[in-house]
Amino acid sequence: MSEPLVRLEDVKVDFSVRKGLFGSESIHAVDGVTLDIAAGEVVAVVGESGSGKTTLGRAALGLVRVTDGHVHFDNTEISALPRKAQKAFRRRTAAVFQDPFASIDPFMKAYDSVAEPLVIHGIGNERERRERVLQALHDVRLRPAPEIADKYPDLLSGGQRQRLSIARALVMQPQFIVADEPVSMVDASSRAELLALLRELQERFNIAFLYITHDIATARHFAQRIVVMYLGCVVEMGQAADIVRSPLHPYTQALIASVPEPDPANRLKQRPSLPGEPPNPVNAPSGCSFHPRCAAFMAGRCELKTPVLREVEPDHYVACYLHETDEP
Ligand code: SF4
């Protein structure tokens, strides 16, 4: 593989949480994640809430402070960037968030929302900005663009607002976008259209994506590689087709089993979905943190020591004692 555009190297992000009236303690929101993303590649990070996937995305954009490890963009460590280079980094990256109602200012017309990043970064004169904004609106199929540009967001549907968020990201012509659950708050019909649009834009402009989702089905549809996270750690990683066709980690297997079976005739054959809730990271289970929910739990092994992420097939990594031949 050529040099990655984005390289996360043993990234750790700790947060402080309140404990009792006066105390606090540290939780590992992201706990030693290593991941490369090539230019134009789509990598999906999949997991339930609390898995650390959103924090990982924010770390990749330099939006949270990394406690340990390194984040590189285009061979440069982003935490070490001088102020001017930080600005240049921001121009080359963008984010699309889950909630288009929260991420778009309701008091700004669509035109101003999309133009705002250009204004902040001092890009172009008024005529050039107008051209770029209208082109971005057109590219995300908010058409006719001049008409949409003049509207306030409350006149747009949820799907259209999310397209507006995407146009706002796209107008900067980024090389890397973190899309955090970008289709989870829109209706089912808009969801398929938005995913198709993201795919089209990604291919057309060769944009690398870190696609964050709880839904492994959309991850398979959109991404070339899938990274499965549980309680801050990567538990499985590989080519999207391999992960979905032959998942190795019991957590990935359960995530796949939780995907609703569209054919009623097959519903009874579906494997049971994920039992219980993700544990509170303040009291993370010992050993393999998935062990309290794991149907394949091996007493005397799984709860004692954390399994290491290993390559068990070409480009297919898993952290589970079921796939480890060495003694722990
Ligand atoms: Fe289950 Fe043990 Fe594998 Fe963890 S290491 S996923 S508890 S079998």
Characterise the protein shown here:
- With 328 residues, the protein is an alpha/beta fold.
- The chain has a domain at 6-92 and 174-250: Rossmann fold (3-Layer(aba) Sandwich).
- It contains twelve helices and twelve strands.
- The protein has helices spanning 53-60, 83-91, 100-103, 110-120, 126-139, 145-149, 158-170, 188-205, 216-222, 240-245, 250-257, 264-267, and strands at 6-19, 23-37, 42-46, 68-73, 76-77, 93-96, 176-180, 208-213, 225-230, 233-239, 310-313, 316-318.
- The strands form two sheets. An eight-stranded mixed β-sheet has the order 6-7-8-3-9-10-12-11, with helices on both faces.
- A hairpin with a 2-residue loop joins strand 9 and strand 10 (233-239).
- Helix 7 packs parallel to helix 8 (188-205).
- The radius of gyration is 21 Å and the shape is globular.
- The chain starts with 5 loop residues before the first strand and ends in a 10-residue tail after the last strand.
- Bound molecules: iron/sulfur cluster (SF4).
